[in-house]
Structures are given as C-alpha cells and as structure tokens.
Prior knowledge:
Strands 6, 8, 9, 10, 11, 12, 13, 14 and 15 form a 9-stranded mixed β-sheet that branches. Strands 1-4-5 form a 3-stranded antiparallel β-sheet, with helices on both faces. It contains 13 helices and 15 strands. About 50% of the residues are buried. By secondary structure, the protein is of the alpha/beta class. It starts with a strand and ends with a helix. The protein folds into 2 domains: about 5-120, Enolase-like, domain 1, CATH 3.30.390.10; about 120-355, TIM Barrel, CATH 3.20.20. The protein is globular, with a radius of gyration of 20 Å. It comes from Halosimplex carlsbadense 2-9-1. It holds the Pfam family MR_MLE_N. This is Mandelate racemase/muconate lactonizing protein. GO terms for molecular function: lyase activity. Keywords: Lyase.
Amino acid sequence: MEITDLEVVGLSHTLPEGEGLGDARGFGHDRSTTLLRLETGDGTVGWGEAFAPGPIVEATVDELFRETVVGMDPFDSESLATRSYTDPYHFGGSVFVQSVVSAVDVACWDIRGKAVGRPVHRLLGGRECEELLPYASTMYYTERDRPIAEPMREAVDEGFEAAKIKIGADPETDAERVRTAREILGDDARLMVDMNGNYRPDQAVRSIRKISEYDLTWVEEPVPPENLSGYRELRERTDVPLAAGEAHYGRFEFKRLVDDRLVDVVQPNLARCGGLSEARRIADLASTENVGVRPHIWNSAVGLAAAVQFAASVSDYPHTRNVPDPMMVEFDRSPNPLREDILETPFDPSGGTLAVPQGPGLGISVDEGAIERYRAD
C-alpha cells in the first residue's frame, strides 16, 4: 500500500458582522483551518487536519513534504515526526511544519484503520471505549453585548455536565464570570477557565486568588506559552491545577512542561502537536510523570475526530474506579459549520456524553460536497 495522491484543502467560514467572538486577547470573525486528503493506490482515502492557514500549509507541503509523502506507505507515518526534526533540520520545530506533520500523520492513521478494519483508538493501544465526557467550551467574549449567563444556560440545557469558560481580561470581571458559571452549572459539575496567556504572573496570581473558591478543575494558559518561568512562579504562589499545551508543538516542548512539573494537565492539539503518533509519545511522557492528558480542540470535525480517537486511547493511570476522573474532550459551542456540516453524521455532545466512533480509522464519513462549499480557495 502506498500513497498516490495528496490534496491540501483550505476551509473558511466568516461570522456575520457584529457576531465576532473570542477570548481575552480579542475578537475574531473567521473560522478557518486546512484539511489534508490522502489517497492510496487502492482508492482508500484518509483525512487529516493542519490547524494553520491554507496557503502556508500548501507551500510547506510543496516545499518539504510532497515528494516524501507521495509514494510513502501509510504504515510508515510514525517515523515522519522524527524525520521532521532532522530533515529539514532548521525548520522542524516550527508550528507550520508540525501542523503539516500532524495532518499527514492523522490521515495515515485514518488509512491504516480502514485497511485493518479497526478504529484508531484501538490501533493506538487503547482499550475498547464507547463514550467520553464532553465539556462545553463556552462563555466567549463577544463583539455583540450579550448576558454572560446566557451561553452557560444553553450548555446546561444541552446536557453538559462540565464546561470551560473564557476569562483573563481583568481579575474583577474574572471573578464575576466564574461565579456566574458555577451558579448555573451547579456545585458538582466540572468547571475550567481559560486565560489564553493574557496575564503576567502577578496578574494571574491576583485572578486565581479571586476565583479559587469555585472549585476549578484547572486554570488554562494563565501566562503566555513561552513564559515557562511564569508557570514556575504560579506553581509556587497558587494551589490550583494548571493546564497548557495548545500552543506547544512536538514532544520536546511538552517534555519541558512535564519534566519541570509546570502544569498538571498537558493539552496537545492533534492538528498541531505532530499528530496521533506524536500525541501518543506526549501522553507516554505525561503518564510516566503522572501528569494528566486532555486534548485541546478548536478545529473542524476532522480534528475533533482525531482528538476523540486519541482521548479514547489514553491510559487512566494511576486511577482505579475509586477515583472518578473520566477522560474529557473539549467541545466548542460557538457557531462553526466546519464542525457541524462537513460530516455525514456530525458529533453529538448533547445529553452529557460523546460517543466514540467505532468504525474503521477515524470512524467518520466526510461530506465532500460540504467541503466544496467551504473551500477557502
């Protein structure tokens, strides 16, 4: 079996005027990503996602990867991440190279699963897993004035029993947002907060001290991803669990987070971290040092499918049934047709559970007609 065709597919959707949303760093109006479609000589198709702009992905593929990937056996994909660090030697650690590696690797795993008739999470070594706990990623900062309680009430009405909200604009408003979310979710639900790296350490400490009474499962990206000394300072001055990883790429960056115990939870994004092969190495590094693993997801349905398969494969070490800590997957609740429309059967998080696809590969059927509607080019 060998790959005979590689196609880069940029996707984009623009939110209506006045409907921008985002985090403490600012608003955005575009949802965009890049899919990668691989096909083998026998007609098997695999899908991957590079969470990066289409033109950059296209150029990176053409310059560094196309000649290697076309003609490659999909079962050789696990060596691709390693080769990306050494050839091209000076570019391997960049986000765009790792995003392309991610897309190729995930597409290869999709093909491998289809070739042997098994879902990816079983190929990764995971036990049979039928469902995960989705958490609503919600309460974004919005361009349009909207009551902050409204999106959380919508999430609860959908059946979510866990949620993550955006904070990080000001410690005082952080406290108001967290208090509101906790009141609506209830005392027993899991609640996470995301500061998107918008604070200096002293500001993050002030915010965390104001919100720590609300029983937070984790505080995500309290300082910028490159500010490792800031994470170290927060470990010394606060006692809430910390999480990071969406803006880290490859096993070496995650190894620093794990080795120095800078976070309690690492969050690889399957469309940026190096793909399923690299994510499995990251999970092994984390579990060896007893650090939690929860994938980050701000992707299309293809990236979501990869994250679900990965999450279903992650070991629950060292927990037993006496320590209830279910694997959670992020489920963005902002409008995004790239998540809802491009699969023949979209993911459904309602009711508080998320089914893990049991079909071969990623277990999804991509609607190629819908793909054409959202092509960026």
